[in-house]
Specification:
With about 170 residues, the protein is mainly alpha-helical. It is about 80% helix and about 0% strand. It is globular and about 60 Å long. The relative contact order is 0.13.
Length: about 170
């Protein structure tokens, strides 16, 4: 470990780079076009934001192997190590992208506290399904997250994104 990585902390950071890099690559493969330039039209920005949220369902919630990644991410959130910086780099880039899309869709400044909070809450709805998987499965009377359930989740989240953007627009106009 010392020879190849310099110590346990550096090995752990290397694992973080690998884990988070893999997750980021999956997100890019699925939502690559959305991660580029924010569309000029609010409707296009809304559609791109919905695609991004659906991508999180496909990448973070759907695959069973993401359970281990979720535990790693939660541990870094609760007790940050040097590896947190790797995680934060990817998370903050994703969050900034989503804020840009939300801001354009709602006619708000992308980096305003209101937009940043709303985007955290939208992402949180998605991540909750991974974090509380056992409770969700039990309450939904499911054995596992199957394709039909994940499609229902995406449909509801598309609606939540539309409603959140509409509420933010209304807040601006009132």
């Amino acid at each position: 470990i010392s020879y190849h990585f310099g110590g346990k902390d550096q090995l752990y950071r290397a694992v973080a780079v690998m884990v988070i890099g893999g997750m980021e690559a999956r997100i890019r493969r699925r939502a690559g076009p959305v991660l580029g330039i924010v569309p000029a039209a609010p409707a296009a920005a809304l559609a791109a934001l919905q695609t991004l949220i659906e991508t999180l369902v496909d990448v973070v919630v759907g695959p069973q192997e993401m359970r281990r990644v979720a535990r790693f991410v939660i541990r870094e959130q609760m007790q940050p190590t040097a590896a947190f910086e790797v995680l934060f780099g990817t998370m903050s880039a994703l969050h900034r992208t989503a804020c840009g899309l939300f801001g354009r869709a709602a006619g708000l400044e992308a980096e305003s506290p209101s937009v940043r909070l709303r985007v955290f809450l939208l992402i949180g709805q998605t991540i909750f399904l991974r974090i509380a998987e056992v409770a969700v499965l039990r309450r939904m009377e499911l054995e596992r997250y199957d394709e039909a359930f994940l499609n229902d989740v995406k449909a509801v989240l598309r609606q939540h994104v539309r409603l959140a953007v509409a509420a933010a627009r209304e807040d601006v106009s009132s």
